[in-house]
Amino acid sequence: MRNKFAYGIIAICGLVLAGCYGGGSSSDSESSSSSGSKDNNGTFNLVVQQEMPTADLSVATDTISFTALNNVYEGIYRLDKDNKPQPAGASEKVKVSDDGKTYTVKLREDAKWSNGDPVTAKDYVFGWQRTVKPETASEYAYLFEPVENAADITAGKKSPDELGIKAVNDHELEIKLAKATPYFDYLLAFPSFFPQNQKVVDENGKDYATKSDKSVYNGPFTLEGFDGPGTDTEWEYKKNDTYWDKDEVKLSNIKVNVVKESSTSLNLFKDGEADDIILSGELAQQNANDPAYKSFKEARTSYLEFNQRKADSPFKNENLRKAISYAVNRKSLVNQVLGDGSVVSTGLVPSGMSKDPKTDEDFAKEAGNLAPYDKEKAKEYWDKAKKELNIDSLSFELMASDTDSSKKVIEYMQSALEETLPGITVKPTPVPFSVRLDRSNNGDFDVLLGGWGADYADPSSFTDLFVTGNSYNRGRWSNEEYDKAVDDSGNKDASDEEARWDDLQKANEIISKESGIAPLYQLSEAHLVNEKVKGIVHHPAGASWDYKWTYVEK
Question: Which interval of the chain is the signal sequence (predicted)?
Answer without folding.
Answer: 1-18
